[in-house]
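quick one before i forget lol
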Amino acid sequence: MLPVSTDNLDSKSENRARLPRDERRAQLLAAALEVFTAAGYHAAAMDDIADRANVSKPVLYQHFPSKLELYLAVLDVHIDSLVFAIQTAIASTPDNSSRVKATIDAYFGFIDSESEAFRLLFESDMSVEPQVRERLNRMTYDCAAAVSAVISLDTGLPREASMILAIGVIGSAQITARHWLDRDGKLNREQAANLVTNLIWRGISGFPLNQNENK
């Protein structure tokens, strides 16, 4: 009988070495994102995710008792990331045209750095699942709320009017960013973001500023 090499076993043992809980969780979430994006929720298997993370299945279940819980955790991480990016863009400048540009750039930047996450958030095959739908609705609301607050302050429009305009801004950014991603570089990121910025700014700037504001 030929001797069995222990190199692969040793390598696997090293990769499965105990990590701090937060690092292990991040590793599992990254692996899950790749598998969920490639296969979709229903076709993805916990075995595949464990293999991708190079951990045993019991280790995966120690952190996430079910596939749905794991999926929701992946969503939460990337929803928080996108919402934070939009809120940061809104707060980055007092100039409204620059705010629009920063907001659109935040969407396109998110795609550039996290295209798999963007697909998971906006092309989910689980959008009818109540817990998933609630999270996606919260994401849209939180992004729109950041825009709405500025619109309301600057124009004096009531809350509901400001929110519907903000939803229009956010929706346009989301849909055009998705289209750009699907077109696979037919326009570069800067060209695409500038076109969308000009479109949205020409619309939203038509609403007069609140006369009580010194703008």
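fyi The radius of gyration is 22 Å.
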